[in-house]
Amino acid sequence: MTVYLSSLSKGSRRTANQSLRVITEVSGRGDDILNYPWHELRYQHVQAIRTYLADKYSVATANKILAILKGVLKECKRLGLMSIEDYDKAVDIKAVSGNTITKGKYITPEQFKAILDSCDNTLIGKRNRAIFHCLQLGLRRSEVASLNVKDFNYNEGSILVTKAKRNKSRLVFLTDAGIKAIKDYLEERRKKKDGRSNDNNDSTTSAFFPLSSATSLENWLFSSGRNQRITDQTIYNIIKSCAATLDINIAAHDFRRTCASNLLSKGVDIVTVKNILGHESIETTANYDRRGIDAQKQASKLLD
């Protein structure tokens, strides 16, 4: 189990941990995934787990948990803890079938404008506005958190994403408003540090500081810990706080879904959209398209 988790990205490890706890709890072993005897699972056990998941969870969630379980069992086989025969039988189960409503929402232009307008002109507000512009481009929370100042190229209007999923890099291009917001934030931050700290070359520092209060911000700007990096959890909290203030129901990943939908609706080919989002396959990108949901809403109004 530990070997399997170590092969995943930080964000994926969190999801896998939660999924494995579902299995240990239904097996009557609490949430102790570390000491659970994964290597002793056999075909009949996995089938019983599948039945439970199919009854309790959506199709997508059930199959995600099963895929994670199969990943752990594969590592058991590779480490010699399961025979090839036992492994082959254990994973020889059908995926949970059925239809489910597509997950996630589309952030309307009006909602996105409201999100930007909710950010004040303090340094923290400017930071949040810059983060939202990065999310608008389809960046994952973890990718935004990993950005350094040097990753922004104002001449090209681009961001070099170097800590993408599976350690892949890609180049994404900012909107004019995004360039302005990020320059405004970084220049304001640089002014506050100018002449008051022995900071290293600013290009090597993390782009987004992790703090929220003015007092801690001052301490961070001029302390030896100023290169501390914002976390994807902090970005999650920023989004949820903003959504609660505006009374809108959005999640971090909805920015990626909205990016895909906007690009596809403007005629951008799906391969280009796939590359912008950093997806492995076109099928994944197609699942991010929320134009169909919007079209269904409009169609239903015709029935009035």
Describe this structure in words.
- The protein is mainly alpha-helical.
- It folds into 2 domains: 2-90, no CATH class; 109-294, Intergrase catalytic core (hpI Integrase, Chain A), CATH 1.10.443.
- It has 15 helices and 3 strands.
- A 3-stranded antiparallel sheet has the order 1-2-3, with no helix packed on it.
- Helix 3 runs parallel beside helix 5 and helix 12 (254-265) runs antiparallel to helix 13 (270-277).
- Residues 197-201 have low confidence and may be disordered.
List keywords for this structure.
304 residues; mainly alpha; hpI Integrase, Chain A; three-stranded antiparallel β-sheet; globular
Give the structure's gist in a few sentences.
The protein is mainly α and 304 residues long.
Q: Topology of this protein?
A:
Elements: H1 2-6, H2 10-26, H3 43-56, H4 59-78, H5 84-90, H6 109-117, H7 123-136, H8 141-145, E1 152-153, E2 158-161, E3 170-173, H9 176-193, H10 214-221, H11 232-246, H12 254-265, H13 270-277, H14 282-287, H15 291-301
Antiparallel strand pairs: 1-2, 2-3
